[in-house]
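Dear all,

This email documents one entry for the complex benchmark we are building for the journal club exercise. For each entry we list the sequence lines for every component of the assembly. Then comes the predicted three-dimensional structure of the complex as a token string, followed by one or two observations. Please use this as the template for your own entries, and keep the labels exactly as they appear.
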Amino acid sequence: MSYINLIRSLVIKGDLNLAPEQTQLALKAGLSPQEIIDQGLIAAMEEVGQKFAEGDLYIPEMLLAAKTMQSCMEVLRPLIVDKGIKSKAKVVFGTVQGDVHDIGKNLVIMMMQGAGFEVYDLGTDVNPEKFYEAIQLHKPDFLCMSALLTTTMGAMGKTIQFLKEKGARNNIIIMVGGAPLTEEFSLSIGADGYAPDAPSAVVKAKQLLGIS
Amino acid sequence: MITLSVIEEQDRIKILNGAFQILEDIGVQIDHPLIFEKLCAAGCKGDEKNKRIYFPRQVVEERLKLCPPTANFANRQGEIFTAKPGGPSVFWTGNALNFTQGKETRPIRSDDFVAFCQVVDSLPFIHGLVGTNIGEYPPEVKDFVGFRLMMENSSKHLRPCIYTPQGVAIILEMAQAYLEELGKEIKSWPIVSTGYTIVSPLHWTKEGLEVFLRSAGYGMPVMINSECIAGATSPVTLAGTLVLANAEALSGIVINQILEPGRPCVYNLGFSHVMDMKSAEPTTGAPENGLIAAAGAAFARDLHLPSAAWACSDAACVDGQSTFERAVVGLTQLLGGANIIWGAGNLEFTRAISLEQAVIDNEIIAAIQRIKKGIHVSDETLALDLIKEMQSQANYLSSDFTLKYFRQELISLSIVNRHRRSIWEKRGAKTLEESARDQVEKILKKPRAESENEKGLEKVRQIEKNG
């Protein structure tokens, strides 16, 4: 089996010991970090995402695969920085002001990282100013906001309005999600996209970015 | 009365000891500065920087002693249900975001909610009405607008859905104004109750604590809810979830007894979910939901407190799943001894309400309450004389004994089919949902009686306008 295929299957299986080991060996054998990331790690997570969406994988198994992928990324990270290798996209995440729920957000983050996105997680109860500051600092392609309560989902619209006033709205794609949200709501507040669950969030993000 | 024990006493002791340990060693995040201060003054240890309160066991046990062992819930027909450990159970509806009819769903509108209140008002086995989202109103007013709609359209006990602390204050004002017209007060006639849910794990938000604070001092019963999601916000093991849930509910008891010593509290572990490990949804119709709630009722009995639960279904529409899940979970919770069981009319992980499901649930509740009632044995019901009289003749149907006892022995349900197929076909070959739909239409066509306290309702409407 080739190194790439082996790394891919170890990530899918969630082998936290062997996967990073094989990543090291693959590098020693002369494979490039980009090749390992694209054909090994991201390809593995795409397969994981597919299996999960079809109901063939449980969430803990998916999370283990994501963790395994991250452990391989840690092996590659010094080389990524050296060679200036870019992620697919940069994303800033946060649960909006007044809301402290984050399970769904954390699942989406895991899946986005698995898809090769670079994620900055602001945590929960994030006010519009903090979102703005993060956008200024990290210059992300995407902003993703999450809310679980009907009393806090209004903060999404306020955040978008704040970004408009600061002149920061046009350069960023905004996606929203959370239990009480709907597609209609997301359009009404001026978001670019909405996803009802973690796997479809990644699909939607790629769609909005125009990437595969 | 039939009961179900899902957890042995020695296991409950282990779990409760675990909960006390969590409260002492890990503590709870308390976001409300005033309540933080009060907890410290009451003997808890506080870490101000991290907003963390550590609850010594002694403090918890002292505050538990202040809790009355009962909580009363009144309707506006003068009936009071007393929730007490080991006592009977009642079923309420549950809150929701959406209104489902057939396979369609939409955010609940006020006319949907009015119809729901009116249907539930006619259903004899549902005793309480819980507020819901009202889609066309902003969050700041949803709770007290919803309360006014409930007051106008149902005389059941009312548990409005609280969106803001200001909302609970306005609702209290409305309830008091209504009762004043009848020369009554909330304490002796609690037509409304409240409650709030901790954010698991171990985090009371400022909003939740403010709701407790603003509703304290009136003798109004408060439901203290732990709503863990096993595998997501609590350990995946049910025992681990029960440790956390007990710790959370106990912290809520301490807080409420500090704010209002002697306030009636409902100890509620029964809202807890288990995470579905494929869909990431917090289930409500899984058998484990029944187990957790039944165990929760047992813990409440140990602590001499009334308990609650939520019997729902994860089905997205009225179908076989929406009936079997509710029946299985509801029966487990009922036999386990939960005193107040939410969920009548709920669908889709409690996200939706349905008029037809409410009617069907009324029947399910009637059936499972009958099971709980058990078998009444007396010299009369042994029917020895009758058996001697009948000998080998099957004439029981026409006997006076049957006429005397059939109503109390055999429950009569309204919409289930009890006819053979040929008659079922002649009667329209209706599914359960279709029969429920017929009953909904019948209820909604009936003219509604005038309110017994129109002056009180006028005051409620005026307060809403000012709010």
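Observations: Residues 89-209 of chain A form a domain with the Rossmann fold fold (CATH 3.40.50.280). The mean pLDDT of chain A is 92.
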